[in-house]
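Thread: quick sanity check before group meeting

JM: Hey all, I'm pulling together slides for Thursday and realized we never actually wrote out the predicted structure for the chain we discussed last week. Dropping the sequence here so it's in one place. If anyone has concerns about the input, flag it before I start.
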Amino acid sequence: MLSYLFWPNPPAPAYSSPKVVMILLVCVVLIAASFSLKRWRSKQSSSVTRKLSKSWSRVALWLAISGLFLTVCRVEGISYISMRFWWIIWALSALLFVGFQIKMFRMRHYEVLPQEGKEEDPREKYLPKKKK
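JM (edit): ok, ran it. Output follows.
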């Protein structure tokens, strides 16, 4: 298993390979998403949403650039950069970023709902009162 991940010079596919085309398409979509996220963020009125989404466009752009770099290195057969291990690191970093952002979004992006009427507290008659 480790020799499969760390083999420095796997056979290089061509640019017409379906896997390579799919990876290049994902990278182009990430670049487009980067610019659309930047535009979407500027239109947000909620300061919490703007603050939480500040890094999304930059991370999408860097993932796309590094994915394009890894794809070109893989097709051109550049050793030690085209290893499968770097693709696993790339995917894990993307998944960790998405997971962390989902967690932070759930923690910080909330709304306080208005309460309807005041409920009677049974402890109220035993609590000290304000002196008049």
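AS: nice. Helices lie at 2-6, 18-43, 47-52, 56-76, 84-108. Residues 60 and 120 are 51 Å apart (CA to CA).
JM: adding both to the slides.
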